Amino acid sequence: MTDADLPIVVVGAGAAGTMAAIFAARGGRRTLLVERTRDGGRKILISGGGRCNVLPSQVDAGRYFTESSRNSMKKMLLSWPLEQQRRFFEDEVGLRLVLEPETGKLFPESNRARDVRDGLLALARRCGAETLFDTVVVGLRPPAEGQPWKVLVDGGREIDAAAVILATGGLSVPATGSDGTGMRIVRQLGHGMHDTYAALTPLTADPAVHAPLAGISLEVTVDAPLAKGSLRARGGFLFTHRGYSGPTVLDVSHLAVRSAREAGRRQPVLVQWTPMDARGWEALLLEAGPGTIGSLVRRQLPHRLADTLLDECGVDPERTRSQLRRDERARLVEALARYPLPWTGDEGYKKAEVTGGGVPLGEVDPRTGESRVVPGLFLCGEILDCFGPIGGYNFFWAWATGRAAGLGAAEVKA
């Protein structure tokens, strides 16, 4: 085999890796997509409840989190604008995307995540990429003088490569194949690593004081106060048998997870259960009118939740508004508009949507994802220090960085 025949090897057939393979192959390079599972794209398959939220309907760079340079992050995000990504999926993958108005998410018209995974793999193959499934990469050996990259495979096999794209994901949902292998490999090659943690993960409470409310879901506003300002999320909230979930909880969970690592600190998470804020509830409770406090609160909230909040406040639901004492009204307003969620832990990587932390963005070229530490190595997707909120933001990051890595690797000299 001549140097010109050496493939670009893409490790990981998830969202970022499959996209990287498409664009590396389009660049005219022989491309080999290596995947540890039998079919690849397993996070795509489980995303969006099996529907796959392919993209958000709008992208705000300010909603992404990184401990690295935000300027580098923005360059990477802007490398493939939202409208271009949408056209790619519709015109080239052949998936019509449909807006879900209440959430602002874009789903495939079929509502089948499998169509997204299969469509991307089919396009990669049409572009000329070869695939190798059920193959576990255990290490990489950079080129010695005049030698190619060596991709070390479980069982002692070696694959020669002109360049390597590492798209192995992070640590979230390890059952899909994301076990941190890629992070171990890049450390061995000399890369730094911002501390990793579970992000977009449900919170738990021990004891599970709200277990009797499990299954109740509603639209809320969650507020996580910070030293400067706060992180606010509006949308769905779900009581679980072990604690709390839903998009609002997941979107602020990384603050809770990180605070739990610091002795003596616990991130407050405050819930406004209805569209009314404290001022609105205060005014409503001061109004003269018929009916009991219990009936008033139950009209705004699921009955079991309303009764639980009234009980926690020590307010008799049979009392009328005029019979409320000032201290009772104050406690009730606080519970309805700024309820401190009694979380004590989290579900960790097992249920986390993404991994926080990762390879610092300053250690890769923001235009191509090429390593500044080991030339010829390209990094994309969740292994990099960046994640966004629920709603297609993390797929947007995976598609953009995967495409950049594929294009960049295709330019490596054979």
Mean pLDDT: 96
Query: Percent range for helical residues?
Result: 25-40%
Q: Give the low-pLDDT segments.
A: none
The largest pleated sheet is described as:
7 strands, antiparallel
- The radius of gyration computed from the alpha-carbon positions, rounded to a whole number of angstroms, is 25 Å
**Total helix count?**
12
Which band does the percent of strand residues land in?
A: 15-25%
Keywords, please?
414 residues, 21% strand, alpha+beta, five-stranded parallel sheet, seven-stranded antiparallel sheet
General description of the model:
The chain has 414 residues and is an alpha+beta fold. The chain has 12 helices and 20 strands. The protein has helices at 15-26, 42-46, 70-78, 82-93, 113-126, 181-188, 247-259, 278-286, 293-298, 303-313, 326-337, 393-410; strands spanning 8-11, 31-34, 55-56, 97-100, 105-108, 130-132, 137-141, 149-153, 157-161, 163-166, 194-199, 203-204, 217-225, 230-239, 243-245, 270-272, 339-340, 345-346, 354-358, 377-379. A 7-stranded antiparallel beta sheet has the order 17-16-13-14-15-12-18. It has a 5-stranded parallel beta sheet with strand order 6-2-1-10-20, covered by helices on one side. A hairpin with a 7-residue loop joins strand 7 (137-141) and strand 8 (149-153). Helix 1 runs parallel beside helix 5 (113-126), helix 1 runs parallel beside helix 12 and helix 8 packs antiparallel against helix 11 (326-337). The radius of gyration is 25 Å and the shape is elongated. The mean pLDDT is 96.
